[in-house]
Amino acid sequence: AAAEEEEDDDIDLFGSDDEEEDQEAAKVREERLRQYAEKKAKKPGLVAKSSILLDVKPWDDETDMAKMEECVRSIQLDGLVWGASKLVPVGYGIKKLQIQCVVEDEKVGTDILEEEITKFEDYV
C-alpha cells in the first residue's frame, strides 16, 4: 500500500511541464503580434477629404459663363475632383457660378484653389 501512495505522489495532476509549453505559446504569440503589426503597417491610413462649394463671380455682366466654367474645370491638381455646377442669379441679370469640388486635405487647400481660379483675370 505504501508503494502505491508513493506512485500517486509522483503523478502531478496539474502538470508542471507547462513551463516549456508557456515558452512555446509566448513564441507563437510574439510571432502573431509581429505579423499583425506588419500587416497593419502596410494598410493605408484614412485620407481626410473635404467637400467645398465655391462661388465664382464673373468680371462683368458680359462674361461668357460657359467659358468661365470651362476655365475653372481646367484646373487639374492631384487630390482634386470637380463636381456639379450651376449658375445662380446675383442681381441685375448677373449670375455667378456655383461649383462643387472634393479635395484631399493633405494635397489641396482652398488657398491654392483661389489662386488658380483668380488667374483667369478675363473671366473672374
UniProtKB/TrEMBL annotation:
Keyword terms of this UniProt record: Elongation factor, Protein biosynthesis
Domain Translation elongation factor EF1B beta/delta subunit guanine nucleotide exchange: from-to ranges: 49-124
Domain of life of the organism encoding this protein: Eukaryota
Transmembrane segments: none
Region (Disordered): 1-27
GO MF, one example: guanyl-nucleotide exchange factor activity
One Gene Ontology term, aspect cellular component: cytosol
Residue ranges, compositional bias (Acidic residues): 1-23
InterPro entries hit by this protein: eEF-1beta-like_sf, EF-1_beta_acid_region_euk, EF1B_bsu/dsu, EF1B_bsu/dsu_GNE, Transl_elong_EF1B/ribsomal_bS6, Transl_elong_EF1B_B/D_CS
Elongation factor 1 beta central acidic region eukaryote domain segment(s): 13-40
Record family assignment: Belongs to the EF-1-beta/EF-1-delta family.
Record protein name field: Elongation factor 1-delta
Protein species of origin: Brachypteracias leptosomus
Lineage start: Eukaryota, Metazoa, Chordata, Craniata, Vertebrata
Gene that encodes the chain: Eef1d_1
